[in-house]
Amino acid sequence: MSNALVWLNGQLVKQEEAAVSAISPGLLVAMGLFETMAVYEGKVFAFGRHYRRLEQGCERLGFVSPTMDVLEAVMTELLRDNALLHGRARVRITLFEGPLKMETLVQATAVEPSEGASRMLVSPYRRNERGALTGIKATAYAENILALREVRQQGADEVVILNSRDEVCEGGTTNIFCVENDVVLTSPLSSGCLPGVTREIVMELCQDRGMPVREEALSLERLLKSDGVFLTGSLREVQAVESIGERTWGKHSLVDQISGAYQSYVRDYIDGAE
C-alpha cells in the first residue's frame, strides 16, 4: 500500500520513513516478539488471546508490553487511517529491544483469504523442543522462513517441521491437526510447537460440539496414515491439507465441520456475540 502508515514508538509515520537504530539489539540479534492478527471488517479478531500470549513472551524475555488499551487504540487508528475498515486485513505488533529502551512497531495491511487446500513437504531441519525460545512468538524466525522458502521452491505452500525426537511439531506458520478414526489429534505443546491462538479456539470448538480432540505426540508415519490433515493459523484460519509429499487426501467431512464451526465463531465475534 503506497503511503501506508505505521505506528512506531508512539508516532504515526509513513512506513518508508520508519527507522530504528543501527545498534538496536532487536535488529542485530533478533531480540523481539511479534503477534499477527486477522482483521475482519475493521475488527481485530481474538486480540485478548493474542495479548495474553504476547505477555507470556514478554515475561520470558524480560520485556514490558504496552497495555491492551494503548494497543487497541493504536490498531483502531491505523486501520482507519490506512482505509482497512472493510474486508480482510492483518495487524502485526512487534516488540523489540532498542539501544536504550523497549520499542514497539504496529503495522496494518490488507490480505487476501487463503483459498484451496494446502500442499506440504517435510523439512529436513529439526525444531529444538527444549530451546529457550520454544513456545513464544519470537522475531528470530529465520529457521521457519528458510524451511518455507525451500518447500515453496518445490511447489508446496507449507512445511511440516519435526522436532529433535522426530515427532510432528508444527508448520512454518501454522499448527498441524489430523483426524484418526473420527478423533481430532494435534501435537502437544511439549513437542515445541507454538501455542497457536487458532489452535486453541479450534480445540475449544471441538470440545463444545462433542468432537473428540486430544493432544498426542505424533510421528510422521502416523500423520501420513491419518484419515485427514488440516492446518490452523490466524490468516489461514482452518485449511485442509491436500498432500504431504506423495501422500494425498480428499475432502473429509469432519474437517469441513470444524472449518464451518470456526467461520461461525468468527462471524459471532465480529457481530459482538462472543
TrEMBL record:
What's its catalytic activity?
A: L-isoleucine + 2-oxoglutarate = (S)-3-methyl-2-oxopentanoate + L-glutamate; L-leucine + 2-oxoglutarate = 4-methyl-2-oxopentanoate + L-glutamate; L-valine + 2-oxoglutarate = 3-methyl-2-oxobutanoate + L-glutamate
Q: Which residues form the signal peptide?
A: none
According to the UniProt entry, what is the EC number of this protein? 2.6.1.42
Question: Which InterPro entries would you find in this protein's record?
Answer: Aminotrans_IV (IPR001544), Aminotrans_IV_CS (IPR018300), Aminotransferase-like (IPR036038), BCAT-like_C (IPR043132), BCAT-like_N (IPR043131), Class-IV_PLP-Dep_Aminotrnsfr (IPR050571)
Q: Which cellular component appears as one GO term in the record?
A: cytosol
Q: Which cofactor does it need?
A: pyridoxal 5'-phosphate
| PANTHER family, sorted | AMINO-ACID AMINOTRANSFERASE (PTHR42743), AMINODEOXYCHORISMATE LYASE (PTHR42743:SF11)
Q: What is this protein called?
A: branched-chain-amino-acid transaminase
Q: Which organism is it from?
A: Rubritalea squalenifaciens DSM 18772
